[in-house]
């Protein structure tokens, strides 16, 4: 709606100062001509907005002009107060600042919207952590935050997965991302994007050099690129397995990232041969980057059987035999 668009323009100008018309058009997904018409509408309504031509021109408000949030809808107010439940501000040391900000927003909200906002904060809780995720290592984001907000290069000592020693890197940060309760530093290293888990950063130190980000590249774009690299890794090994129906829900929760499709369940009349559900069993299809990763399925014990390929069955058999030997060799005497 035009009213929502006018409010969005007003808030963007208050936040950003001078903004090129083309950028406003891109953010609002309208044409530049529509933006100029909206600016005329704001001006006619008494908003002191003006446009400057030239290379460094754009659209801006007269200095000192502010507006309140009386244009906020009930749903927008509710969404803002649910944000307080997401917890990311805790790791960033912003608990007190967030509480203060929300009190100010509440005071500025139109009276009819305040009950809905208060109710949302007490009735909706967002917990970003997975079930049974276990204790998390302490994460110190102070130096990483400073580098991100002051646009400085960062020297970190970092431990990669599966390694014990720390490696030293100089990186150019784009920002911090919280995903499923885990914080990541998104940065360029030697001009190439890379992901660093914050809980594996042994130490971090600011350098005197300004950050060297690739021109025109923003955090969201780099994050999406890195996320695709993680999620779209080639799966060289396709595995078919059967699992007992009473363990299927647990398997789907644990193996979700490896599953290639929904489980196949039968009515109990089918044969438990490869690819067919049997009595009390369901068939699942999985994909792994390397053959050895199939050992993940050992955690289901005799409730899961790998059916195909034969090489994966051999890996499971060898792993099970090695495990049996470990316990047999260390069995307590009677």
TrEMBL record:
GO terms for molecular function: DNA binding; DNA-binding transcription factor activity. Pfam families: HTH_11, WCX, WYL. Transmembrane segments: none annotated. This is Transcriptional regulator. SUPFAM superfamilies: Winged helix' DNA-binding domain. Keywords: DNA-binding, Transcription, Transcription regulation. Signal peptide: none annotated. Residues 2-61 form the HTH deoR-type domain. The keyword Transcription applies.
């Amino acid at each position: 709606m035009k009213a929502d668009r006018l409010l969005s323009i007003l808030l963007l100008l208050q936040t950003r100062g001078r903004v090129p018309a083309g950028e406003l058009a891109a953010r609002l997904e309208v044409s530049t001509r529509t933006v100029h018409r909206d600016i005329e509408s704001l001006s006619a309504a008494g908003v002191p907005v003006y446009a400057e031509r030239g290379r460094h021109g754009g659209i801006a408000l007269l200095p000192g002009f502010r507006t309140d949030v009386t244009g906020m809808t009930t749903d927008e107010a509710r969404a803002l107060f649910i944000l307080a439940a997401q917890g990311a501000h805790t790791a960033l040391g912003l608990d007190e600042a967030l509480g203060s900000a929300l009190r100010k927003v509440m005071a500025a909200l139109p009276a009819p919207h305040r009950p809905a906002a208060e109710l949302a904060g007490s009735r909706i809780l967002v917990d970003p952590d997975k079930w049974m995720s276990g204790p998390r290592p302490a994460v110190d984001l102070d130096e990483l935050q400073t580098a991100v907000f002051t646009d400085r290069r960062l020297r970190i000592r970092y431990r990669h997965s599966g390694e014990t020693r720390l490696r030293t890197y100089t990186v150019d940060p784009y920002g911090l991302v919280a995903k499923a309760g885990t914080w990541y530093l998104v940065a360029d290293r030697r001009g190439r994007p890379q992901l660093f888990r914050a809980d594996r950063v042994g130490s971090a130190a600011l350098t005197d050099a300004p950050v060297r980000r690739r021109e025109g590249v923003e955090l969201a774009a780099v994050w999406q690129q890195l996320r695709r690299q993680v999620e779209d890794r080639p799966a060289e090994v396709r595995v078919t397995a059967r699992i007992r129906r009473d363990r299927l829900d647990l398997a789907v929760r644990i193996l979700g990232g490896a599953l290639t499709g929904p489980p196949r369940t039968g009515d109990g009349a089918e044969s438990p041969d490869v690819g067919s559900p049997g009595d009390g069993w369901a068939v699942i299809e999985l994909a792994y980057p390397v053959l050895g990763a199939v050992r993940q399925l050992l955690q289901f014990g005799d409730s899961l059987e790998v059916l195909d390929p034969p090489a994966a069955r051999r890996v499971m058999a060898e792993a099970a035999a090695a495990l049996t030997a470990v316990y047999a060799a260390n069995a307590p005497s009677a």
